[in-house]
Amino acid sequence: MKRAAVLACLALASGSAALPVRAGSAEDSAQGQDAGKRGGELRVGVYVDPPFVARTGGEGYAGMAIELWEIAARDLQWRYRYEEVGSYEELVDGLESGSLDVGVANIAITRERAGRMDFTHPWYDAGMRVMAPKAGKGSGLLGGMREGGHLRVYAVLGFAMLVATLLLTLADRKNDRKFTRHWGEGLAENFYRVVCGVALVAYIASSTFSVMSVDVLSRQINDVRDLEGRPVGVAAGSAAERFAIDTGLTPVRYRGMEEAARLLARGDVAAIVGDAPLLEYYAHAYPEAGLEVVGRLFNPDKYGFVMRHGSALQKPLAIRLLRLREGGQLEALRSRYFDRTGG
């Protein structure tokens, strides 16, 4: 139900847009028609990654990137149809092969991609952050001992001491005629003997607890620097994957935030490294997942719409995005999607 409500809000936001911009020229419209196939219909590749691109049921899409594209395309009088892809890699491959004309998604402008494709003017300033399971805040002494595994060890030791006390008492009552016949006194005496006898065990257990506590603290993730030597989740074909490879992290690929959350829940990865607005949005929209975004923004980048080299769509689309930015409409759109999520 929660996911449906979020997508409904995105659909409502998309339907409510009415940002005034100057009408496109006949030349811009003709360029768009010539660039597309099937009677001038542009093939627009979309990669679902809320809140930039989200499904609204059926074949509909909403989100900030979708809404921005539709404003510009309407102004330029371009006809188009959406074609969903499963990853950033598929989007780039589709553009390079010519099966797609435009890529509409939160795709970062990187040096490697700019060498393969053309980007529009940037329309969103982003960067990367880390998402990890929430730390056990406010759990108190018992909660901390439980998370560290200490309560289980105490239970095992306590049970072993009770069993040892009972066995010693039974043996003394059978073999020692001078041993008290009173059960309460006999159990108390042997319990004292057992406690003294396991003093060494208690010392060893205490040392173990200390090591376990240090290990639990050392596994808490507060920043990307805490991820060295650990597997991290990254979106397939994303800038985060390239960052992980370049910095010596161990990347584990996923397709979509739902799969990323499952990797974290199973312990297959220690954290997710990805675009900050996506991680912040997911943690806010799905609090039941028990995830939080930690650390500062790093590896800053920008998003742009993308197309193959030499596309006639690049110039008119870039101009429209610049006008939206200069007129304040782009910032209003960003605020409508992210101010309510803390992104």
From TrEMBL:
Record-annotated Solute-binding protein family 3/N-terminal domain positions: 41-341
Domain Ionotropic glutamate receptor C-terminal residue range list: 41-340
Top-level taxon of origin: Bacteria
Annotated keywords: Membrane, Signal, Transmembrane, Transmembrane helix
Gene3D superfamilies: Periplasmic binding protein-like II (3.40.190.10)
Keyword Zinc: no
Transmembrane intervals: 151-170, 191-212
Signal sequence coordinates: 1-23
InterPro entries: Iontro_rcpt_C (IPR001320), Solute-binding_3/MltF_N (IPR001638)
Pfam family, one: SBP_bac_3
Family, as annotated: Belongs to the bacterial solute-binding protein 3 family.
The protein's name: Transporter substrate-binding domain-containing protein
Organism: Pseudoxanthomonas putridarboris
